[in-house]
Write a structure and sequence with these properties.
It comes from Anopheles funestus. This protein is 56% helix and 12% strand. It is of the alpha+beta class and 202 residues long. It has a 5-stranded mixed sheet with strand order 1-3-2-4-5. Strand 4 and strand 5 (163-167) form a beta hairpin. The N and C termini lie far apart (81 Å).
Length: 202
């Protein structure tokens, strides 16, 4: 009897195992470490950190700032990393991930969940059941789009020696290069740690 029960609910068990695996992978994810692009030179120890929204495509903006800052202030250590969104958005994106995997697993294993989701969605699930490949692709890409929207923070946050010096979340824009140079000069002029590159062309 137990064997027949397991056999009849094999698809459901497989889906649950897949969801558990996905959750363990999500929970096991480590915080994305900061990418260190330079080392301290001459013992100055000044560090500028950029936390940006990777899913927004801000990596290129970070690369541009990295190049111009390194050109004028070659002794500054520059770090970059992904800005994590709020906890609720991260939790919701994980729920979407598990739901997406469960739906695809149910489709691929021919498990009919239409009897559990109620009449309003039974017709939609039947369509998915009849068009498994197309429906799986639709669920996958739609889920990815929603997840990206949830974790897209629009952030481009800058700190200098752990002191916040710029926030795109507050200002709504990126700093101009001259603004960035002024910020660095203002924060380091009294410390007498960093000297601009005399060969830098404004």
């Amino acid at each position: 009897m137990l064997r027949s029960l397991v056999r009849s609910h094999f698809a459901l068990l497989a889906a649950v195992l897949l969801a558990g695996l996905a959750m363990s992978m999500v929970e096991g994810e480590k915080e994305i470490p900061l990418t260190k692009f330079s080392q301290d030179v001459g013992g100055y120890g000044a560090t500028m950190t950029f936390l940006y929204c990777y899913s927004c495509g801000y990596r290129k903006a970070f690369d541009d700032y990295y190049n111009i800052i390194r050109e004028k202030y070659p002794e500054i250590t520059i770090r970059g990393g992904n800005y994590d969104p709020s906890g609720f958005n991260m939790l919701l994106s994980k729920v979407l991930l598990v739901t997406k995997l469960l739906l695809i697993a149910a489709l691929m294993s021919n498990y009919d969940i239409g009897r559990y989701i109620g009449n309003p969605f039974a017709g939609w699930w039947q369509w998915c059941f009849n068009n498994k490949l197309y429906a799986s692709m639709m669920i996958f890409f739609l889920g990815n789009t929603l997840e990206a929207q949830l974790i897209s923070s629009g952030a481009f946050e800058i700190t200098l020696n752990d002191v916040p010096v710029w926030s795109k979340l507050e200002t709504g824009r990126f700093p101009a290069p001259q603004e960035m140079f002024q910020i660095i000069d203002n924060h380091l002029q009294f410390a007498n740690k960093i000297e601009p590159n005399p060969d830098f062309v404004k």
